[in-house]
Amino acid sequence: MSDTQNLFAKLDSDARKNGYFLNPDSAFTMELVEGLLANEKRFGHQACPCRLADGNRQEDLDIICPCDYRDADLDDFGACYCALYVSKDIAEGKAKAEPLPDRRPMKRDERQQFREKKAGTGASGLSHPVWRCRVCGYLAARDEPPGVCPICKATKDRFDRFM
Are residues 83 and 27 both part of a single domain? Predict the structure, then answer.
């Protein structure tokens, strides 16, 4: 099996296991998977192939696939920005993925504000902070985020302080 086929199989398995669907257009989807692999080789992380990556992991955290905008895009438009992830209707051929606006803030300081807003800063009264995995939503109440998410295997830097 090629690297592209292996990554596709992993993405498809993870998507199905977590209630998501990949785009049924196999040629299109394989091109996106190749783009993820190219970005991983170029930058060391799988930045969205349809966005301009900075190359700095910290600056690109919000667009590492699956990106922070995936769920909102699926809810609002039935597909993520690059259309790798699609709604059930699109996956079953009942609807088509349409172009959609990029909700990623343009400037670095806007992205930082987005991260801070998402992480929250209010006092929760809990004995430990709560960390949320940006990829799967897993929550962990502890002093530091886990090194690796036990659910989706995302790395520590994919966690935001939730409470």
Answer: yes
CATH number of the domain residue 21 falls in? 3.90.460.10
Do 133 and 149 form a contact (C-beta atoms < 8 A)?
yes
* Paired tokens of 88: 């059930």
Confidence (pTM): 0.73
Number of structural domains the chain divides into = 2
CA–CA gap between residue 34 and residue 29 (Å, rounded): 9
pLDDT of residue 115: 66
DSSP characters over 21-53 = EE-S-HHHHHHHHHHHHHHHHHHSS-B-TTS--
Question: Residue 121 pLDDT > 60, yes or no?
Answer: no
Residue 113 is predicted with a pLDDT of: 72
